Amino acid sequence: MDSIIYKSSNGSFCETKCPYCEYYCTLPYGHPQMEHETSHGNMIQTVFSAVDDEFEYNGFTFNTGDRGSCFLCNMFCKDLGRHKHIDYCQSVDHTKCTGEGIQHISEKINPDPDLPKDFLKHGLYWKRTGFKDPYNKEDQDLFSKCDALCCGDEHQIKATQAASSTGGSNTITPAKSYCELPLFHAPLPGGSVPPNGGVGYVSVDGHYFKCQNPAMVGSDFHIIFVIDRSGSMTTTDCKPLPNTPVERQLRSTHNNRLGAVYDAVYRFVETRQSTLRSRAVGGAASASPSNSNDTVSMVLFDDKVVTAFANKTLVGFSGMVSEMQKHLPRGGTSFGVGIKQATDICVQHHDPKRYDMALTEFSSSVPAYESTEFMSLHSLQSTRDYIPVRWRMHR
Ligand SMILES: [Zn+2]
Ligand SMILES: [Zn+2]
Ligand SMILES: [Zn+2]
Ligand SMILES: [Zn+2]
Ligand SMILES: [Zn+2]
Ligand SMILES: [Zn+2]
User: Fold this and answer.
1) CATH code assigned at 293
2) Which SUPFAM superfamilies match (predicted)?
């Protein structure tokens, strides 16, 4: 065995062994470095554990209790991508088990189901060995991110039509969409707005994904933007984002908060359009963006209210930015008239095959979420058909 050559028969090499592969440290005896180092070998001392008794690794199926002997210590994690490790719990009182990089597992899992176990961040797992983490910085950064995946249909493997006609069995492997937050993050409030004004959605269980909310894919929507265009929206602390197709057009008339809101509306509609396009490519039954029934409306309020557009077909709505640009900031803030107008539009264009969704942007003044007007909007339709969304600009 290779590792024999590192044995300190002459007392010149460190005698510490990697607990997973049993390779000896290759540094001199009594080395000043805090961390031991070695080239690592097969994980003969590693036994697999997993929450599900069976799990897959690189196309092979393993059971808990199987040995890791056929894998190399310094290669194994790379193929896992984002992952967490499992180790025996070290807390005296398991009910109070906490710590940086640790998440206590409440279920009993194999092997030794009666011994409590923890999920560990990759970094901590290696720190406990006393050996230097054998993976590079890029890998380590990836391993420290949350491993939750978006369950949206567009990320699932689908056999292609083309493949079956040629007798092949090609499959499309769409990109997975991982949570953007660090591993073991505290869950965000389910369904809240994405952090830092980002795109995407927060799942019911509190993970943040940059892709489209699966709850919104495959349904048709009437999206109603309810926008504050009062005088304070001339403030220039927010502006349209740079380097977008509409930046120049918007900045020519609205280089201010209202322009930033219009820009966000434009990006929201773009995202929705591209979702509808990918839904069409993905081969769903009603698979053309042109037969989507999505429509979009916009209500602008100050102390008065105006409808910029109502129930416009979302796909191919090319003049939206020009329509919005006709309206400059003015007047005071009367939240109620905006909500009243949105409610009227909602009733007037209600289609039972569609979800009505009001996106209400509070920029300058922030009325209470529980205001009576907002609550009336909530109760307008049965809760299943109506999704009021509080949509807040971040600065
Ligand atoms: Zn050493
Ligand atoms: Zn090792
Ligand atoms: Zn624990
Ligand atoms: Zn690892
Ligand atoms: Zn997704
Ligand atoms: Zn997460």
Assistant:
1) 3.40.50.410
2) vWA-like (SSF53300)
